[in-house]
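Subject: complex prediction, re-run

Hi both,

The earlier run crashed halfway through, so I resubmitted it with identical inputs.
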Amino acid sequence: MAAEDRRQQILEVAVQLFSQKGFRGTTTKEIAMAAGVNEAIIFRHFATKSELYTAIMDRKACSDEVQAMQSALKEAMDAGDDRQVFERLAFHMLEFHEHDDTAMRLLLYSALEGHELAEMIFRNHISKTHRQLAEYVKRRVADGAFRRIDPVVAVRGFIGMIINQVMYKKFFERCGGQPLNLTNRQAAERFADLFLASMTNHSYDHQRIRRKH
Amino acid sequence: MAAEDRRQQILEVAVQLFSQKGFRGTTTKEIAMAAGVNEAIIFRHFATKSELYTAIMDRKACSDEVQAMQSALKEAMDAGDDRQVFERLAFHMLEFHEHDDTAMRLLLYSALEGHELAEMIFRNHISKTHRQLAEYVKRRVADGAFRRIDPVVAVRGFIGMIINQVMYKKFFERCGGQPLNLTNRQAAERFADLFLASMTNHSYDHQRIRRKH
DNA sequence: TGCAAGTAAGTATGCGCTTACTTACCACAC
DNA sequence: GTGTGGTAAGTAAGCGCATACTTACTTGCA
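This time it finished cleanly. Structure:
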Protein backbone atom coordinates (compact mmCIF):
# COMPACT_ATOMS: atom_id res chain seq x y z
CA MET A 1 0.00 0.00 0.00
CA ALA A 2 1.24 3.49 -0.88
CA ALA A 3 2.55 5.61 1.98
CA GLU A 4 -0.16 8.27 1.91
CA ASP A 5 -2.95 5.69 1.73
CA ARG A 6 -1.51 3.83 4.67
CA ARG A 7 -1.16 7.05 6.63
CA GLN A 8 -4.81 7.90 6.08
CA GLN A 9 -5.91 4.40 6.99
CA ILE A 10 -3.95 4.51 10.23
CA LEU A 11 -5.50 7.87 11.08
CA GLU A 12 -8.94 6.48 10.40
CA VAL A 13 -8.65 3.60 12.84
CA ALA A 14 -6.79 5.81 15.32
CA VAL A 15 -9.72 8.25 15.45
CA GLN A 16 -12.06 5.43 16.36
CA LEU A 17 -9.82 3.99 19.05
CA PHE A 18 -8.71 7.27 20.61
CA SER A 19 -12.29 8.50 20.78
CA GLN A 20 -13.43 5.31 22.46
CA LYS A 21 -10.63 4.90 24.98
CA GLY A 22 -8.76 8.19 25.13
CA PHE A 23 -5.10 8.90 24.48
CA ARG A 24 -3.75 7.07 27.49
CA GLY A 25 -6.17 4.19 27.10
CA THR A 26 -5.28 3.42 23.49
CA THR A 27 -2.11 1.50 22.67
CA THR A 28 -0.05 1.78 19.52
CA LYS A 29 -0.12 -1.99 19.15
CA GLU A 30 -3.91 -1.89 19.20
CA ILE A 31 -3.98 0.73 16.47
CA ALA A 32 -1.56 -1.30 14.38
CA MET A 33 -3.63 -4.45 14.74
CA ALA A 34 -6.84 -2.63 13.83
CA ALA A 35 -5.07 -1.28 10.73
CA GLY A 36 -3.78 -4.78 9.94
CA VAL A 37 -0.07 -3.89 10.03
CA ASN A 38 2.90 -4.30 12.29
CA GLU A 39 3.30 -1.83 15.13
CA ALA A 40 6.56 -0.50 13.68
CA ILE A 41 4.64 0.86 10.69
CA ILE A 42 2.88 3.32 12.96
CA PHE A 43 6.23 4.84 13.88
CA ARG A 44 7.36 5.01 10.28
CA HIS A 45 4.44 7.34 9.52
CA PHE A 46 4.25 9.21 12.83
CA ALA A 47 7.27 10.03 14.98
CA THR A 48 5.40 9.55 18.27
CA LYS A 49 2.02 8.43 19.51
CA SER A 50 1.26 12.04 20.42
CA GLU A 51 2.01 13.23 16.87
CA LEU A 52 -0.45 10.64 15.57
CA TYR A 53 -3.02 11.97 18.01
CA THR A 54 -2.73 15.60 16.95
CA ALA A 55 -2.67 14.60 13.27
CA ILE A 56 -6.30 13.57 13.78
CA MET A 57 -7.18 17.25 13.64
CA ASP A 58 -6.46 17.48 9.91
CA ARG A 59 -8.90 14.69 9.11
CA LYS A 60 -11.64 16.25 11.20
CA ALA A 61 -11.17 19.68 9.66
CA CYS A 62 -13.14 19.34 6.47
CA SER A 63 -16.07 17.14 7.42
CA ASP A 64 -19.00 17.52 5.05
CA GLU A 65 -21.52 17.79 7.83
CA VAL A 66 -19.71 20.67 9.51
CA GLN A 67 -19.50 22.58 6.24
CA ALA A 68 -23.17 21.95 5.54
CA MET A 69 -24.01 23.46 8.91
CA GLN A 70 -21.78 26.47 8.39
CA SER A 71 -23.41 27.32 5.07
CA ALA A 72 -26.95 26.64 6.30
CA LEU A 73 -26.27 28.92 9.23
CA LYS A 74 -24.76 31.66 7.11
CA GLU A 75 -27.70 31.59 4.72
CA ALA A 76 -30.23 31.94 7.53
CA MET A 77 -28.18 34.71 9.14
CA ASP A 78 -27.94 36.69 5.93
CA ALA A 79 -31.69 36.40 5.53
CA GLY A 80 -32.12 37.59 9.13
CA ASP A 81 -34.44 34.64 9.79
CA ASP A 82 -34.09 34.16 13.56
CA ARG A 83 -36.07 30.97 13.71
CA GLN A 84 -34.07 29.37 10.91
CA VAL A 85 -30.76 30.42 12.45
CA PHE A 86 -31.36 28.75 15.78
CA GLU A 87 -33.44 25.84 14.60
CA ARG A 88 -30.93 24.87 11.93
CA LEU A 89 -28.00 25.22 14.27
CA ALA A 90 -29.69 23.04 16.85
CA PHE A 91 -30.77 20.48 14.28
CA HIS A 92 -27.34 20.20 12.68
CA MET A 93 -25.61 19.88 16.04
CA LEU A 94 -27.99 17.16 17.18
CA GLU A 95 -27.68 15.26 13.90
CA PHE A 96 -23.93 15.60 13.72
CA HIS A 97 -23.30 14.25 17.19
CA GLU A 98 -25.83 11.49 16.73
CA HIS A 99 -24.13 10.22 13.57
CA ASP A 100 -20.57 10.79 14.71
CA ASP A 101 -19.82 10.29 18.34
CA THR A 102 -16.06 10.47 17.85
CA ALA A 103 -15.87 14.27 17.82
CA MET A 104 -17.51 14.83 21.18
CA ARG A 105 -15.59 12.02 22.84
CA LEU A 106 -12.26 13.19 21.43
CA LEU A 107 -12.94 16.73 22.61
CA LEU A 108 -13.89 15.65 26.13
CA TYR A 109 -11.08 13.14 26.47
CA SER A 110 -8.41 15.54 25.34
CA ALA A 111 -9.83 18.39 27.44
CA LEU A 112 -9.68 16.15 30.51
CA GLU A 113 -6.26 14.76 29.67
CA GLY A 114 -5.00 18.27 29.00
CA HIS A 115 -3.85 17.43 25.49
CA GLU A 116 -3.42 20.22 22.99
CA LEU A 117 -5.89 18.47 20.67
CA ALA A 118 -8.70 19.91 22.79
CA GLU A 119 -7.50 23.43 22.15
CA MET A 120 -7.16 22.71 18.43
CA ILE A 121 -10.70 21.33 18.15
CA PHE A 122 -12.04 24.26 20.13
CA ARG A 123 -10.23 26.91 18.11
CA ASN A 124 -10.93 25.38 14.70
CA HIS A 125 -14.55 24.36 15.13
CA ILE A 126 -16.35 25.64 18.18
CA SER A 127 -15.14 29.13 18.87
CA LYS A 128 -15.89 30.31 15.33
CA THR A 129 -19.54 29.29 15.55
CA HIS A 130 -19.83 30.92 18.97
CA ARG A 131 -18.42 34.20 17.69
CA GLN A 132 -20.58 34.23 14.55
CA LEU A 133 -23.69 33.57 16.58
CA ALA A 134 -22.81 36.24 19.14
CA GLU A 135 -22.33 38.71 16.30
CA TYR A 136 -25.74 37.80 14.94
CA VAL A 137 -27.42 38.26 18.31
CA LYS A 138 -25.70 41.60 18.77
CA ARG A 139 -27.00 42.74 15.40
CA ARG A 140 -30.55 41.64 16.16
CA VAL A 141 -30.42 43.46 19.49
CA ALA A 142 -29.34 46.57 17.59
CA ASP A 143 -32.26 45.97 15.20
CA GLY A 144 -34.58 46.00 18.17
CA ALA A 145 -35.70 42.48 17.34
CA PHE A 146 -34.15 40.99 20.47
CA ARG A 147 -34.14 42.25 24.04
CA ARG A 148 -30.96 43.89 25.23
CA ILE A 149 -29.22 40.76 26.48
CA ASP A 150 -25.49 40.13 26.57
CA PRO A 151 -24.86 38.21 23.32
CA VAL A 152 -22.26 35.98 24.97
CA VAL A 153 -24.73 34.96 27.67
CA ALA A 154 -27.39 34.28 25.06
CA VAL A 155 -25.14 32.18 22.84
CA ARG A 156 -23.65 30.22 25.69
CA GLY A 157 -27.12 29.54 26.97
CA PHE A 158 -28.44 28.31 23.66
CA ILE A 159 -25.43 26.18 22.77
CA GLY A 160 -25.59 24.82 26.30
CA MET A 161 -29.16 23.59 25.84
CA ILE A 162 -28.20 21.69 22.71
CA ILE A 163 -24.89 20.27 23.93
CA ASN A 164 -26.51 19.15 27.16
CA GLN A 165 -29.16 17.33 25.17
CA VAL A 166 -26.44 15.65 23.10
CA MET A 167 -24.51 14.53 26.17
CA TYR A 168 -27.61 13.44 28.00
CA LYS A 169 -28.57 11.17 25.12
CA LYS A 170 -25.06 9.89 24.68
CA PHE A 171 -24.21 9.14 28.28
CA PHE A 172 -27.08 9.39 30.70
CA GLU A 173 -30.39 8.32 29.23
CA ARG A 174 -29.40 4.71 29.86
CA CYS A 175 -28.80 5.56 33.53
CA GLY A 176 -32.44 6.17 34.34
CA GLY A 177 -32.56 9.77 33.15
CA GLN A 178 -35.91 10.90 31.79
CA PRO A 179 -35.93 10.19 28.06
CA LEU A 180 -36.96 12.87 25.60
CA ASN A 181 -38.96 11.04 22.97
CA LEU A 182 -38.48 13.54 20.19
CA THR A 183 -36.85 13.42 16.79
CA ASN A 184 -33.88 15.73 16.34
CA ARG A 185 -36.08 17.95 14.18
CA GLN A 186 -38.65 18.26 16.95
CA ALA A 187 -36.04 18.80 19.66
CA ALA A 188 -34.41 21.52 17.56
CA GLU A 189 -37.80 23.23 17.20
CA ARG A 190 -38.49 23.10 20.92
CA PHE A 191 -35.12 24.47 21.97
CA ALA A 192 -35.23 27.19 19.33
CA ASP A 193 -38.73 28.10 20.51
CA LEU A 194 -37.55 28.24 24.09
CA PHE A 195 -34.63 30.44 23.20
CA LEU A 196 -36.44 32.81 20.88
CA ALA A 197 -39.26 33.25 23.35
CA SER A 198 -36.74 34.47 25.90
CA MET A 199 -35.02 36.79 23.43
CA THR A 200 -38.22 38.47 22.35
CA ASN A 201 -40.05 38.66 25.66
CA HIS A 202 -40.12 42.39 26.18
CA SER A 203 -42.81 42.21 28.82
CA TYR A 204 -41.17 39.95 31.36
CA ASP A 205 -39.34 41.70 34.16
CA HIS A 206 -38.58 44.51 31.82
CA GLN A 207 -37.37 47.03 34.38
CA ARG A 208 -34.90 44.62 35.83
CA ILE A 209 -33.30 43.85 32.48
CA ARG A 210 -33.19 47.52 31.54
CA ARG A 211 -31.64 48.52 34.81
CA LYS A 212 -28.78 46.05 34.30
CA HIS A 213 -27.65 47.69 31.12
CA MET B 1 -2.76 5.07 61.89
CA ALA B 2 -6.08 3.27 62.50
CA ALA B 3 -7.50 1.29 59.60
CA GLU B 4 -10.58 3.45 59.03
CA ASP B 5 -8.61 6.69 59.14
CA ARG B 6 -6.12 5.32 56.67
CA ARG B 7 -8.94 4.16 54.40
CA GLN B 8 -10.47 7.62 54.39
CA GLN B 9 -7.12 9.26 53.77
CA ILE B 10 -6.44 6.98 50.80
CA LEU B 11 -9.88 7.77 49.39
CA GLU B 12 -9.23 11.47 49.79
CA VAL B 13 -6.02 11.47 47.75
CA ALA B 14 -7.52 8.98 45.26
CA VAL B 15 -10.38 11.38 44.49
CA GLN B 16 -7.89 14.10 43.61
CA LEU B 17 -5.76 11.87 41.41
CA PHE B 18 -8.57 10.01 39.64
CA SER B 19 -10.35 13.28 38.87
CA GLN B 20 -7.19 14.80 37.43
CA LYS B 21 -5.97 11.85 35.35
CA GLY B 22 -8.86 9.42 35.08
CA PHE B 23 -9.02 5.78 36.12
CA ARG B 24 -6.58 4.45 33.55
CA GLY B 25 -4.23 7.40 33.92
CA THR B 26 -3.82 7.07 37.69
CA THR B 27 -1.49 4.43 39.12
CA THR B 28 -1.83 2.71 42.47
CA LYS B 29 1.80 3.55 43.26
CA GLU B 30 1.04 7.22 42.70
CA ILE B 31 -1.92 7.08 45.09
CA ALA B 32 0.21 5.32 47.70
CA MET B 33 2.97 7.91 47.44
CA ALA B 34 0.49 10.78 47.70
CA ALA B 35 -0.91 9.13 50.83
CA GLY B 36 2.61 8.63 52.17
CA VAL B 37 2.41 4.84 52.46
CA ASN B 38 3.64 1.76 50.67
CA GLU B 39 1.71 0.61 47.64
CA ALA B 40 0.77 -2.68 49.34
CA ILE B 41 -1.30 -0.73 51.88
CA ILE B 42 -3.72 0.26 49.13
CA PHE B 43 -4.48 -3.39 48.48
CA ARG B 44 -4.93 -4.13 52.17
CA HIS B 45 -7.84 -1.66 52.25
CA PHE B 46 -9.24 -2.18 48.75
CA ALA B 47 -9.20 -5.50 46.92
CA THR B 48 -8.63 -3.94 43.52
CA LYS B 49 -7.98 -0.55 41.97
CA SER B 50 -11.52 -0.61 40.59
CA GLU B 51 -13.02 -1.18 44.04
CA LEU B 52 -11.11 1.85 45.30
CA TYR B 53 -12.53 3.85 42.40
CA THR B 54 -16.16 3.01 43.08
CA ALA B 55 -15.67 3.53 46.82
CA ILE B 56 -15.20 7.21 45.98
CA MET B 57 -18.97 7.41 45.58
CA ASP B 58 -19.57 7.08 49.33
CA ARG B 59 -17.36 10.05 50.13
CA LYS B 60 -19.05 12.23 47.54
CA ALA B 61 -22.54 11.35 48.73
CA CYS B 62 -22.91 13.68 51.69
CA SER B 63 -21.14 16.84 50.61
CA ASP B 64 -22.29 19.91 52.54
CA GLU B 65 -22.59 22.02 49.43
CA VAL B 66 -24.90 19.56 47.70
CA GLN B 67 -27.17 19.37 50.72
CA ALA B 68 -27.25 23.16 51.01
CA MET B 69 -28.39 23.35 47.41
CA GLN B 70 -31.06 20.71 47.89
CA SER B 71 -32.59 22.52 50.84
CA ALA B 72 -32.33 25.97 49.27
CA LEU B 73 -34.08 24.60 46.21
CA LYS B 74 -36.78 22.89 48.20
CA GLU B 75 -37.49 26.03 50.18
CA ALA B 76 -37.88 28.12 47.04
CA MET B 77 -40.05 25.46 45.42
CA ASP B 78 -42.36 25.23 48.41
CA ALA B 79 -42.73 29.00 48.34
CA GLY B 80 -43.49 28.82 44.61
CA ASP B 81 -40.90 31.54 43.97
CA ASP B 82 -39.89 30.87 40.36
CA ARG B 83 -37.06 33.34 40.30
CA GLN B 84 -35.53 31.97 43.49
CA VAL B 85 -35.85 28.38 42.28
CA PHE B 86 -33.87 28.88 39.11
CA GLU B 87 -31.50 31.56 40.32
CA ARG B 88 -30.51 29.57 43.38
CA LEU B 89 -30.08 26.38 41.42
CA ALA B 90 -27.87 28.14 38.90
CA PHE B 91 -25.87 29.91 41.58
CA HIS B 92 -25.26 26.78 43.62
CA MET B 93 -24.24 24.78 40.58
CA LEU B 94 -21.81 27.46 39.44
CA GLU B 95 -20.32 27.85 42.91
CA PHE B 96 -20.09 24.14 43.56
CA HIS B 97 -18.21 23.39 40.36
CA GLU B 98 -15.97 26.39 40.80
CA HIS B 99 -14.88 25.29 44.26
CA ASP B 100 -14.71 21.59 43.53
CA ASP B 101 -13.63 20.56 40.10
CA THR B 102 -13.26 16.89 41.06
CA ALA B 103 -16.95 16.05 40.70
CA MET B 104 -17.32 17.18 37.09
CA ARG B 105 -14.04 15.62 36.02
CA LEU B 106 -14.83 12.31 37.72
CA LEU B 107 -18.24 12.20 36.08
CA LEU B 108 -16.88 12.95 32.61
CA TYR B 109 -13.92 10.62 32.91
CA SER B 110 -15.97 7.70 34.10
CA ALA B 111 -18.72 8.35 31.55
CA LEU B 112 -16.11 8.28 28.78
CA GLU B 113 -14.29 5.27 30.20
CA GLY B 114 -17.59 3.46 30.61
CA HIS B 115 -17.06 2.90 34.31
CA GLU B 116 -20.04 2.26 36.54
CA LEU B 117 -19.03 5.21 38.70
CA ALA B 118 -20.63 7.49 36.10
CA GLU B 119 -23.95 5.77 36.51
CA MET B 120 -23.68 5.96 40.29
CA ILE B 121 -22.95 9.70 40.25
CA PHE B 122 -25.78 10.27 37.82
CA ARG B 123 -28.34 8.26 39.75
CA ASN B 124 -27.40 9.59 43.19
CA HIS B 125 -26.93 13.26 42.41
CA ILE B 126 -28.08 14.46 39.04
CA SER B 127 -31.22 12.60 38.13
CA LYS B 128 -32.95 13.50 41.40
CA THR B 129 -32.53 17.24 40.82
CA HIS B 130 -33.71 16.86 37.24
CA ARG B 131 -36.86 15.07 38.32
CA GLN B 132 -37.65 17.50 41.12
CA LEU B 133 -37.24 20.43 38.80
CA ALA B 134 -39.38 18.83 36.10
CA GLU B 135 -42.09 18.25 38.69
CA TYR B 136 -41.93 21.90 39.67
CA VAL B 137 -42.18 23.09 36.08
CA LYS B 138 -45.13 20.77 35.50
CA ARG B 139 -46.90 22.21 38.53
CA ARG B 140 -46.28 25.80 37.42
CA VAL B 141 -47.61 24.98 33.96
CA ALA B 142 -50.72 23.60 35.63
CA ASP B 143 -50.93 26.81 37.67
CA GLY B 144 -50.96 28.76 34.43
CA ALA B 145 -47.79 30.56 35.51
CA PHE B 146 -45.66 28.97 32.79
CA ARG B 147 -46.43 28.35 29.14
CA ARG B 148 -47.38 24.83 28.19
CA ILE B 149 -43.89 23.53 27.53
CA ASP B 150 -42.64 19.96 28.00
CA PRO B 151 -41.07 20.06 31.49
CA VAL B 152 -38.27 17.70 30.45
CA VAL B 153 -37.32 20.01 27.58
CA ALA B 154 -37.42 23.00 29.87
CA VAL B 155 -35.31 21.41 32.58
CA ARG B 156 -32.78 19.99 30.19
CA GLY B 157 -32.50 23.37 28.54
CA PHE B 158 -31.94 25.24 31.78
CA ILE B 159 -29.48 22.76 33.29
CA GLY B 160 -27.72 22.77 29.93
CA MET B 161 -27.15 26.52 30.05
CA ILE B 162 -25.55 26.27 33.48
CA ILE B 163 -23.47 23.15 32.86
CA ASN B 164 -22.21 24.57 29.58
CA GLN B 165 -21.11 27.71 31.40
CA VAL B 166 -19.30 25.57 33.98
CA MET B 167 -17.51 23.54 31.32
CA TYR B 168 -16.68 26.56 29.24
CA LYS B 169 -15.01 28.23 32.20
CA LYS B 170 -13.24 25.05 33.23
CA PHE B 171 -11.90 23.97 29.86
CA PHE B 172 -12.30 26.47 27.08
CA GLU B 173 -11.98 30.06 28.24
CA ARG B 174 -8.20 29.65 28.12
CA CYS B 175 -8.46 28.51 24.49
CA GLY B 176 -9.53 31.87 23.15
CA GLY B 177 -13.23 31.49 23.92
CA GLN B 178 -15.05 34.71 24.70
CA PRO B 179 -14.86 35.26 28.46
CA LEU B 180 -17.97 36.07 30.45
CA ASN B 181 -16.83 38.64 33.00
CA LEU B 182 -19.57 38.04 35.51
CA THR B 183 -19.64 36.83 39.08
CA ASN B 184 -21.47 33.57 39.66
CA ARG B 185 -24.26 35.57 41.26
CA GLN B 186 -24.62 37.73 38.17
CA ALA B 187 -24.39 34.80 35.78
CA ALA B 188 -27.06 32.94 37.75
CA GLU B 189 -29.31 36.00 37.48
CA ARG B 190 -28.81 36.28 33.74
CA PHE B 191 -29.48 32.64 32.99
CA ALA B 192 -32.50 32.56 35.28
CA ASP B 193 -33.79 35.70 33.56
CA LEU B 194 -33.28 34.14 30.17
CA PHE B 195 -35.07 30.98 31.18
CA LEU B 196 -37.99 32.58 32.98
CA ALA B 197 -38.56 35.00 30.12
CA SER B 198 -39.00 32.04 27.80
CA MET B 199 -41.31 30.23 30.19
CA THR B 200 -43.63 33.19 30.65
CA ASN B 201 -43.67 34.57 27.12
CA HIS B 202 -47.26 33.89 26.14
CA SER B 203 -47.14 36.23 23.20
CA TYR B 204 -44.33 34.73 21.15
CA ASP B 205 -45.36 32.29 18.45
CA HIS B 206 -48.34 31.32 20.50
CA GLN B 207 -50.22 29.41 17.84
CA ARG B 208 -47.28 27.24 17.05
CA ILE B 209 -46.75 26.19 20.64
CA ARG B 210 -50.44 25.50 21.10
CA ARG B 211 -50.66 23.44 17.98
CA LYS B 212 -47.86 21.16 19.17
CA HIS B 213 -49.70 20.09 22.30
C1' DT C 1 3.09 -11.44 73.62
C1' DG C 2 -0.15 -11.25 69.93
C1' DC C 3 -1.80 -8.96 66.20
C1' DA C 4 -2.64 -5.26 63.21
C1' DA C 5 -0.06 -1.65 60.60
C1' DG C 6 3.49 -1.18 57.63
C1' DT C 7 7.36 -2.27 54.26
C1' DA C 8 10.97 -4.07 50.61
C1' DA C 9 11.29 -6.63 47.07
C1' DG C 10 9.36 -9.10 44.17
C1' DT C 11 6.13 -11.30 39.72
C1' DA C 12 3.95 -11.37 35.29
C1' DT C 13 2.38 -8.51 32.01
C1' DG C 14 2.05 -4.64 28.90
C1' DC C 15 3.67 -0.18 27.41
C1' DG C 16 6.09 3.09 23.72
C1' DC C 17 9.52 2.73 20.75
C1' DT C 18 13.84 0.65 18.21
C1' DT C 19 16.67 -2.44 15.65
C1' DA C 20 18.05 -5.73 12.32
C1' DC C 21 16.28 -7.85 8.81
C1' DT C 22 13.17 -9.44 4.58
C1' DT C 23 10.16 -8.64 0.84
C1' DA C 24 7.91 -6.11 -3.15
C1' DC C 25 8.19 -2.68 -6.55
C1' DC C 26 10.14 -0.28 -10.57
C1' DA C 27 13.16 2.29 -13.79
C1' DC C 28 16.70 1.03 -16.95
C1' DA C 29 20.86 -1.09 -19.43
C1' DC C 30 21.30 -5.05 -22.38
C1' DG D 1 11.83 -9.88 -22.29
C1' DT D 2 15.44 -10.13 -18.52
C1' DG D 3 18.65 -9.51 -15.04
C1' DT D 4 20.02 -5.62 -11.65
C1' DG D 5 20.34 -2.27 -8.15
C1' DG D 6 18.12 1.20 -5.29
C1' DT D 7 14.28 2.31 -2.50
C1' DA D 8 10.37 1.94 0.25
C1' DA D 9 6.90 -1.15 2.64
C1' DG D 10 6.71 -4.46 5.96
C1' DT D 11 8.04 -7.70 9.91
C1' DA D 12 9.88 -10.33 14.28
C1' DA D 13 11.97 -9.71 18.21
C1' DG D 14 13.27 -7.23 21.93
C1' DC D 15 14.78 -3.00 24.99
C1' DG D 16 13.97 -0.40 29.24
C1' DC D 17 10.52 0.88 31.99
C1' DA D 18 5.90 1.02 34.36
C1' DT D 19 1.82 -1.35 35.54
C1' DA D 20 -1.54 -3.96 39.00
C1' DC D 21 -1.00 -6.87 42.37
C1' DT D 22 1.65 -10.42 45.86
C1' DT D 23 4.62 -12.37 49.27
C1' DA D 24 7.61 -12.68 53.06
C1' DC D 25 9.09 -10.08 56.46
C1' DT D 26 9.46 -6.17 60.33
C1' DT D 27 7.76 -2.90 63.50
C1' DG D 28 4.98 -0.83 67.41
C1' DC D 29 1.27 -0.58 70.40
C1' DA D 30 -2.76 -2.78 73.74
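DSSP finds eleven helices and no strands in chain B.

- K.
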